[in-house]
Write a structure and sequence with these properties.
- The complex is a heterodimer of chains A (467) and B (784).
- Chain A is of the alpha/beta class and 467 residues long.
- Chain A has 21 helices and 16 strands.
- In chain A, helix 13 packs across helix 18.
- Chain B has a domain at 531-762: 3-Layer(aba) Sandwich (Rossmann fold).
- Helix content of chain B is 51%, strand content 10%.
- In chain B, the strands form 4 sheets. In chain B, strands 3-2-1-4-5-7-10 form a 7-stranded parallel sheet, with helices on both faces. In chain B, strands 14-13-12-15-16-17 form a 6-stranded parallel sheet, with helices on both faces.
- In chain B, helix 2 crosses helix 13, helix 10 (227-256) crosses helix 11 (262-277) and helix 14 (371-384) packs across helix 19 (498-513).
- Chain B is elongated, with a radius of gyration of 33 Å.
- The N and C termini of chain B lie far apart (109 Å).
- The chains are: A alpha/beta (467), B alpha/beta (784).
- Chain A binds chain B through residues 70, 82, 240, 243-244, 302-304, 306, 341-347, 350, 353-354, 357-358, 380-382, 385-386, 389-392, and chain B through 620, 623-625, 628-631, 633-634, 636-637, 640, 662, 665-666, 759-764, 772, 777.
């Protein structure tokens, strides 16, 4: 779309770089072969046919943790992994490796675009996207995925995210506006980019978990039986085993569309497909929004859903599943259900642990923590070391996860977590409740005795189009 | 007129750092304004005698009253000017011949008109030899010195009523050796045999069996703490054993001759010996009974030191002592310290001619305090004003049933046995952190019981004593006093109102003194830990040294080896490896318990022929999969906090350097075991230098501090095992992390900061430390 076909762009002797989304997509991870494998195999075939030798594959991590080798293999397939990894031409982006980062230019707002040097110096960059929600794709992929920490801090901050209304509505998102400004800079001064975007259906859970994606009132006898059996056997298991089972689920997703070419054009088309699938019309805002927090979010593939991610998932992602107006009215109450254990994965989330102990005991206000603490974590040598050589999220990442919920935090009058570990919930600045009834009782202080209640059902993913 | 008769006199006092001595000095300064005092004080280990006078006597709150008077506007001189003018300190020791005086001090001593000898080994459980040297020979040496110099000052010797021994009925004011029940003891042969016994016991303690036993016990207590620490402990145990033997010997010798303990026995012989050797020197003996807190002077309730009845009372109030033997209708012969002091001054003031030869200062005959009344009052007092346990809950005092001594001892012995067994059982378990703390608590419980048992054995006799001490001589002296003297030097035991004394003076005073918890609410222990945490993170500290295993990560060298060794094995090989290692485990553990260095040497042989490149590549992956996954986030944060505070951070570990390479950004310096490499690029399995374990760590740190110009007293050390004792003792701020039982016990005793750190609960670590399976191709990557 708005571009020459890929085969005509490939020339012998050119520098070709293929970037792809990291393990934060899709959720849960899809069964092999992954969409990215299919895209990249096709691109590589064309490149081989055109005699392109200099090909690099870069995982567009941003500040996410480095992927384990087996994750790379899962995403790309054994063939690509074995061909590129030993030769060192399949690697992961490093937002702290300033020798391999380069400044492309500056937007009219003064935002500096700084990206991976190899990407910048390529004759052609192909980006393989998995567009699971409306937030993903477009200019965001490259301007965050292979950008430097410095560059990301221009838009990953409380002010921008409080004005992102919502993450799923790019035209009303301050974050996306900033990214699109950077995209313009990239188009003018950067390498040529060929974007491939794909959408998925909602076939999230394989058997026997497929009942999860159905409406409860449509469950048949077999679904009910499976639900009971699953629920009972899971609750009889130790916590670790339960987590292991849930995280090992692979989704039988199928591709619903693929579009390629000039980034903005491709993305607008993709959005049409995503919205067609996700948009649900909702009449008016509600007093209370209830939601169940799932076991997984973009920042914990393979890891435990720690308390900060609970906040990020509830107030960041789920709250933002709207277009127009938020589901819950301003000053309304959000009730989440989640055990909210004080559990962290020490390999993936080392700075989250310290953030929880050090920062959250001091403040839960994004603006205050950004002022007072962010720099210390962002520039910390140890976190940098773990991000660059281990499998840890960047030191600043817990702040970004927290800012993700900044708009929701500002908007809601009260946030209640049902079934959460009480001291942990309080540390997050929320109110713990032991049952849903208690939660409604607590909420009545804010919304009165006869509130309207809306429940956001997850799965599947949907975007509420609130009139 | 006492004050007048002592005016212008020079009075020597021995034992002035003690309870009676301090009160005596104060009273002399205050109530006999024109006398001079010569204090015979022993040089301390670090403090010379004169300094001790300032620190240990004049700083005492007994002098507050005087300080106020002299500090008041319009007073002629300050307190310090007054004490400088009136007090001379001479350095001497009554347990040495000639009192160990130099010529100047000897001259000062020779110029004294009166010598009040109140120095004594008052503890009821002194070793026989030291009781003999001080209590028996002390007065003898003073008299002999006087004879030698050729002076005849008035010696007022403080003794005890209990020289009368375990008798019932009247105990008159006469020498035991002159009384009807004298058994004709020769004090010189008692001295000789006590000295011989000391030598014999020392010899026995050095026999092979005994030395081996001490060594074994030292090892049990400290574990593999390294040779120097073990040697020090062994010697300490030997000395303790000798002392305990001599204490026992003293007690048995006293009991065999009819005295309650070595104190009374040596004091009795001391009186006899003094009378025998005094020659022309006039001697008056003052015998108080059990001296307790002051009735009125310098202020009601004044007390110094933790004395006889106090530990018993506090143990009772604290719920430790459920029962204490005693005869309810018997008397507890208690006498307030100010009455004793007044009596001593009265005797000194009367002078050698008028003073009675022996004056007993006791309450039993004229104003008895009944044991039952004392117990009832105490129970009521602590019911109304309970002590609180560490959870802030009031302790309910038990009902006293006046059992016989045998029964109480039996109960306590049984409790002691149960606790000892439980403690031993726990010691053998590999406990850490909170559980180990529980074991340590058990030990302190057992020690409490043992202490209680000792009280019962020692003090039980005094509550069962039914002797009535006559005070005719004392009252005779009292009657010669005029009204002013009777007001200023009240030594009439009849004035004491026991109800008022026990409830309003004595008990409140000892509760205050014992520093027990007398207010409800949570204990301050957590505050203390918080304070200590602040201390270790103070920017003034120089270095923070960390052990690795179980201090920063829940893993050890065996695990890292296993991880590396299995990483490239297929499944059947892995299973074989696991079984083989499990079989070898007991043997390895045994070596590790005995000597860490031997263990490491033995274990690291396994790395022989391992290719360096492969191990290094695998170690990088291990950092994430094993080390970070098993790390203590609190520990890593602490390292970083030290860094932020500007301290140097050091890792000292017996682990191999390539295994800890991933932790380098956290530390300024890493001391780890190094392994040599063969020319073909494989490891030799040998270490060229001793790995940093045990005492080597202390040495390493000391050398590092020297080299870098840092102060080891400003170092903080974190470690988890008693084998790190040398390191802990070398630094100024030891921190026990997840301590095992032994270390928990030691840390508790010495008041060290204890941290309980744990792994992040969300880590996805498998049970066995085995590398993740790899594909065939990757496994062989390094083989080709």
């Amino acid at each position: 779309m708005d571009s020459d076909p890929l085969p005509t762009l490939l020339k012998p002797g050119m520098k070709l770089t293929i970037c792809f989304d990291d393990a934060s997509l899709s959720l849960p991870k899809m069964r092999r072969p992954d969409t990215r494998q299919r895209i990249i195999e096709a691109v590589l075939e064309l490149a081989a046919a055109a005699g392109v030798d200099d090909v690099h594959l870069i995982a567009a991590l941003g500040l996410h943790r480095r992927m384990h080798d087996y994750e790379l293999k899962h995403v790309l397939g054994d063939r690509i992994f074995d061909a590129f990894h030993p030769r060192g031409t399949l690697y992961q982006h490093d937002a702290e490796d300033y020798d391999n980062l380069t400044v492309i230019g500056e937007t009219e707002e003064g935002e500096v675009l700084e990206i991976n040097k190899r990407v910048a110096e390529s004759d052609l960059v192909v980006y393989a996207n998995v567009n699971q929600v409306a937030m993903d794709g477009g200019w965001k992929s490259i301007t965050t995925g292979v950008a430097s920490y410095r560059c990301l801090s221009f838009h990953h901050n409380p002010k921008t995210l409080q004005n992102t209304r919502s993450l799923m509505d790019r035209h009303h998102s301050a974050l996306h506006q900033s990214l699109w400004r950077m995209g313009e800079v990239l188009r003018e001064s950067g390498p040529q980019i060929f974007t491939v975007e794909t959408t998925l259906n909602t076939n999230t859970f394989p058997k026997p978990f497929d009942f999860l994606a159905k409406r409860e009132w449509e469950w048949n006898a077999k679904d009910r039986a499976t639900y009971l059996a699953t629920q009972k056997s899971l609750s009889a298991m130790p916590l670790k085993a339960r987590r292991k089972i849930m995280h090992s689920i692979e989704s039988p997703y199928e591709m619903t569309s693929v579009q390629a070419g000039f980034t903005p054009t491709v993305h607008e088309e993709t959005l049409k497909h995503v919205y067609a699938q996700h948009l649900v019309e909702v009449e008016g805002q509600t007093d209370i929004l209830t939601m169940g927090i799932p076991y997984i979010c973009p920042y914990n593939p393979e890891g435990v859903m720690n308390p900060i991610l609970v906040m990020c998932m509830g107030l960041g992602y789920l709250f933002n599943m709207y277009r127009g107006k938020p589901l819950v009215r301003e000053g309304g109450v959000i009730i989440m259900t989640h055990p909210t254990y004080r559990d962290f994965n020490p390999v993936h989330h080392p700075s989250y642990i310290d953030f929880f102990e050090e920062v959250l005991t001091d403040t839960t206000d994004p603006a205050v923590m950004s002022e007072k603490w962010e720099k210390k974590y962002a520039e910390d040598e140890w976190y940098r070391h773990l991000y660059r050589t281990g499998n840890a999220y960047h030191g600043v990442h817990p702040f970004y996860a927290w800012y993700w919920g900044a708009h929701g935090q500002q908007h809601a009058g009260k946030v209640i977590i049902v079934g959460g570990d009480a001291p942990t919930v309080r540390r997050l600045g929320f109110t713990p409740a032991s049952t849903m009834n208690d939660a409604f009782e607590i909420a009545s202080d804010v919304v009165g005795r006869a509130p309207t209640v809306t429940h956001l059902h997850v799965p599947s993913v949907l975007v509420a189009d609130v009139k | 007129m006492i004050a007048e008769s002592l005016a212008g006199k020079r009075i020597a006092i021995t034992g002035s750092t003690g309870f009676v001595g301090t009160a005596l000095v104060e009273r002399m300064l205050r109530s006999v304004p024109d006398c001079e005092l010569v204090l015979l004080v022993r040089d301390g280990k670090r403090t010379p005698a004169a300094k001790r006078t300032q620190k240990e006597i004049l700083k005492n709150n007994a002098f507050d009253r005087l300080r106020e008077t002299f500090g008041a506007p319009g007073s002629r001189e300050t307190f310090t000017e007054m004490t400088d003018r009136r007090i001379t300190t001479i350095a001497g020791d009554v347990s040495r011949d000639g009192l160990d005086l130099d010529d100047t001090d000897r001259a000062t001593f020779a110029s004294c008109d009166t010598i009040i000898h109140s120095a004594a080994a008052v503890s009821f459980d002194s070793p026989l030899n030291s009781a003999v040297e001080i209590n028996l020979l002390g007065p003898v040496r003073i008299a002999e010195l006087c004879n030698e110099i050729g002076i005849t000052p008035h010696i007022v010797a403080v003794s005890t009523c209990y020289v009368a021994g375990n008798r019932r009925g009247r105990a008159p004011e006469e020498l035991v050796s002159e009384g009807p029940w004298d058994i004709g003891l020769d004090w010189r042969s008692e001295v000789a045999s006590a000295r011989r016994l000391k030598g014999d016991t020392e010899a026995i303690s050095r026999t092979r069996e005994n030395l081996e036993r001490f060594r074994k016990d030292a090892r049990t207590e400290l574990g593999a703490a390294g040779a120097p620490a073990l040697a020090a402990k062994t010697e300490q145990l030997r000395e303790r054993w000798v002392r305990a033997e001599l204490v026992d010997a003293g007690r048995s010798r006293a009991a065999s001759l009819g005295w309650p303990d070595a104190y009374a026995y040596t004091k009795a012989l001391g009186e006899q010996a003094l009378t025998e050797v005094k020659g022309a020197v006039p001697v008056s003996i003052v015998r108080p009974s059990i001296i307790e807190s002051a009735w009125a002077e310098p202020n009601p309730g004044w007390i110094r030191g933790f004395r006889m009845a106090e530990p018993v009372i506090i143990s009772f109030a604290g719920g430790l002592l459920k029962e204490f033997p005693g005869v309810p209708e018997g008397t507890v012969d208690v006498i307030p310290v100010d009455i004793v002091v007044a009596a001593i001054i009265g005797v000194a003031g009367a002078g050698p001619d008028k003073a009675p030869r022996i004056s007993q200062v006791a309450s039993g005959g004229v104003n008895p305090l009944r044991y039952r009344a004392m117990v009832d009052w105490t129970t009521k007092f602590f019911t109304d004003n309970p002590l609180y346990d560490k959870d802030g809950q009031p302790i309910i005092v038990p009902e006293w049933k006046f059992p016989g001594r045998g029964r109480v001892q039996k109960q306590l012995t049984r409790a002691q046995k149960v606790l000892t067994t439980a403690e031993k059982a726990l010691q053998t378990l590999p406990l850490r952190g909170k559980q180990a703390d529980f074991a340590a608590e058990l030990e302190s419980k057992r020690q409490d019981i043992e202490r209680a048992l000792e009280y019962v054995e020692l003090y039980g006799l005094y509550t069962e004593c039914e002797a009535i001490y006559q005070i005719d001589n004392l009252l005779g002296l009292w009657d010669t006093l005029d009204a002013d003297d009777q007001r200023d030097f009240n030594f009439d035991p009849r004035v004491v109102d026991w109800d008022h004394y026990v409830n309003n003076i004595h008990l409140p005073s000892i509760v205050q003194h014992a520093r027990v918890k007398s207010t409800p609410g949570k204990s301050k222990a957590t505050d203390r830990m918080g304070r200590m945490r602040k201390q270790v993170l103070d920017p003034k500290r120089h270095v923070a040294a960390f052990d690795l295993e179980n201090t920063l990560i829940a893993s050890n060298v065996v695990e890292s080896y296993s991880w590396l060794a299995t990483r490239r094995l297929d499944t059947p090989e892995r299973l074989r490896y696991v079984f083989r290692t499990l079989l070898q485990a007991p043997g390895l553990l045994k070596i590790d318990r005995q000597d860490r260095t031997d263990f490491l040497r033995h274990f690291y042989r396994r790395y022989e022929n391992a290719p360096v490149a492969q191990v290094e590549a695998d170690a990088r992956e291990m950092m994430t999969q094993l080390i970070m996954a098993k790390s203590f986030p609190d520990g890593l944060r602490r390292v970083r906090e030290h860094r932020a505070a500007g301290h140097r951070t050091i890792l000292i570990t017996g682990a191999l350097s390539f295994n800890v390479e991933g932790l380098r950004p956290l530390f300024d310096e890493i001391f780890a075991a190094e392994m040599t490499v063969k020319p073909n690029g494989t490891y030799t399995g040998e270490m060229p230098v001793v790995p940093p374990t045990g005492e080597a760590r202390a040495q390493l740190l000391a050398d590092y501090c020297d080299r870098e110009g840092l102060d080891i007293n400003e170092c903080v050390a974190y470690a988890d095992s008693s084998s790190d004792l040398p390191l802990f003792e070398a630094v100024g701020f030891p921190v026990a992390v997840n301590p095992e039982t032994r270390l928990a016990t030691i840390a508790r005793k010495r008041g060290w900061l204890v941290e309980n750190w744990s792994k992040a609960s969300g880590s996805s670590q498998s049970i066995l430390p085995i590398g993740k399976s790899m594909s065939e191709r990757e496994r062989k990557a390094f083989v080709s």
